[in-house]
C-alpha cells in the first residue's frame, strides 16, 4: 500500500471509492513481494503494480468491479503454459491477490495510517481476506505498538489477532496468517493479511567471537537486521558471519556513536556486548547507556568480569541507575554451555524483555500465556460489526 498511498489518499479525501489490489501471498519466483499494490481510481487511472505487467490487465478489471460494487475478492494467478493467451505469470511463480473497494466508509482509519507512514512511525494493517462469514471479509485492524483500532468483527478475534500482529510489527514482517473464525491460533477458516510498515529492528553484536556468530544467526532467524562489529579485521569478516546483514571493522564505541548521531538507533534496537574486554566494553557501554533508550543492552562475561566491569563503569562516571539497564551476565539461566545454547539463553532474555515475560516456566505461571501491553486499547471503528 505504501507505493500507492498518495493517489489512494487523494481519492479517499475526495469521497470517491477506489479499487485496491494487494499481493498477499507468493510462491516460487513471483515477481513482486507481499504488500505490493495496484490502485485503480474512479476515473480509470491506475498506479502501482502487482506483477510487473503479467496480470495487471486482469486485476485492473477486478479493481474496476470493486469500485462499482463488487465484494472483496481473493484471487490466485499462476503460470499459464497451456495457453499462451491466458492470464498468468511467465516467470512460473504464483501470487494471491486481494481485491477490495476503499472509501471513507470502508477504511475510515486511512488518513491516520498515511500520517504514520509519512512520519515513519510503525503501523500494521491487518485485513481479513478469507472467512466463513463473507460479511467479515475486508474488515481490518490498525495495529500500532501501543494501540489497536478497527475491528475484525468480534472482540475475541481483535484481541487474539491483534496480539500476534503486534509481534509481527515489532519484527517488520508482512505475510498472511491463518486462524480459526474467532482468531483461534490452532484453527482454520480465517486468513488475515498483515501489512507491516516498519523496518526490521536492529541487533548490534559487538565482538566477533564464536558466541557472537551463534547469536547473530539466531538474531537473523528472529527477524532482526544484524550487524556484527569488531575492531579486529582478522575476526570481523563476512566469511565468518555469512548470515548477517553487515560486518563492520571499527572500534565498537566509535561505531555506535556514529550510528546514534545518524539517527539509526531507536527503541527497538538490541545491543549485545560479547567482547568481555575492558578496553572495548567500558567505552562501548558508556556510549550505549547514555545514548537513546534502546530495547535491550546485555554484556557477556563471568560474574567476576561483571563485577570488575561495574567498578570501571562507575569510576568512569556512570550512575547506578544507568548501570541498572545492563543485563549482565547476559542471558537467562538455562544452564547453557555451548555457543548455540548461550545464544538461545540471550535470545530468550531479549524476547522476555520485549514482551514483559518473567523468564520462568509457563507450567508454574498463571494467567494468559501471551501478554498484552496495558496501553493496548481496542477502539472500534464506525464500521464495527458483530
From TrEMBL:
Q: Where is this region: Disordered?
A: 362-386
**Stretches with biased composition (Polar residues):** 373-386
Annotated ranges, domain XdhC- CoxI: 11-78, 117-179
> Which Gene3D superfamilies does this entry report, sorted A to Z?
NAD(P)-binding Rossmann-like Domain (3.40.50.720)
Domain XdhC Rossmann, chain residue ranges per copy: 203-350
Recorded hits in InterPro entries, A to Z, give: MoCofactor_Util/Proc, XdhC_CoxI, XdhC_Rossmann_dom
Name of this protein? XshC-Cox1 family protein
